Amino acid sequence: MIETVKDDFVKTYRLHQSLEALERVRGEISEEAYERLKSLVHYRLYGKEFNREKIREKIALAFSMGSDSTASLLILRWAGFEVVPVMVKLPQMRDAVLLRAQGYGAVFVEVPNYAEVINSQIQKKAPICGKCHSMIMEAVKDYARKNGIKIVASGDLLSFGSISIYKEEDLIKLNLPAFLALDKREAISLLGRKYALGFGCSLWKNATKSAPILKRFGIQRVLRELRAGAIDKEIANALIRDILKN
């Protein structure tokens, strides 16, 4: 399912940081979940096989059907976790996306006042992706709390090392790709299908027509991911070209 990092110094270093971060939350999750997450990192580091029988630990995963969250879902299920893909229904989502998400067993939740908040951001010509992400994660965390789920996961590629897994109030936040030092190309390869690279959702693309400065924020985000090694130059080039053509 996932490959070892072999002699990649940066990824090896980040994985050892993930192990340190995991130790800090050991007492907050079940020992079974702790051992399985530790085994995942050891598999990534050394190719060491581990028991992947189903375990009782549930994980609520913020699910968008994108490459990063889908790869996270596949890895966690492969590792034996019971994963609940939680998809926030947003106005810009096409019915086809929602239908495909059902095939992964997704549950759907709503974000109150989503349109009002995002439209206010657009009118102020302010970045919308960060605000959208925070609202989505709050909805996923609310679902987890209501259903007695301790671990909330995301497909975040950037929050590696000490912030790849940490305690957030009464929950444990797990940024799985960052926890495993996965990059975008690796995530895409796990999907087993052709994946069209593009930046932003239809709402973001429409917003850039009235607030072109959003393109600058988008490019800055791509460059941040490139500097961090989450994407390579070829992917960065494709994403920036996609931003500029809209």
Pick out the low-confidence regions.
none
Number of domains: 1
CATH topology: Rossmann fold
Whole-number mean pLDDT? 94
Main sheet attributes: strand count, strand direction, barrel closure = 6 strands, mixed
Order of helices and strands: HHEHEHEHHEEEHHHHH
Distance separating the two termini? 35 Å
Strand percent estimate: 5-15%
Entry summary:
With 246 residues, this protein is an alpha/beta fold. The protein has helices at residues 9-24, 31-46, 67-78, 95-103, 114-123, 129-146, 176-179, 184-190, 202-210, 213-228, 233-245, and strands at 58-62, 82-88, 107-109, 151-154, 165-168, 171-175.
Structural commentary:
The protein is α/β, with parallel strands linked by helices and 246 residues long. It has one domain: HUPs (Rossmann fold), CATH 3.40.50. Helices cover 53% and strands 11% of the residues. The chain has helices at residues 9-24, 31-46, 67-78, 95-103, 114-123, 129-146, 176-179, 184-190, 202-210, 213-228, 233-245, and strands at 58-62, 82-88, 107-109, 151-154, 165-168, 171-175. A six-stranded mixed β-sheet has the order 3-2-1-4-6-5, with helices on both faces. The longest helix is centred in the middle third of the chain and has 18 residues, at 129-146. The radius of gyration is 18 Å and the shape is globular.
Features:
alpha/beta; 6-stranded mixed sheet; 6 strands; single chain; 11% strand; 246 residues; globular; Rossmann fold
List the helices and strands and how they pair.
Elements: H1 9-24, H2 31-46, E1 58-62, H3 67-78, E2 82-88, H4 95-103, E3 107-109, H5 114-123, H6 129-146, E4 151-154, E5 165-168, E6 171-175, H7 176-179, H8 184-190, H9 202-210, H10 213-228, H11 233-245
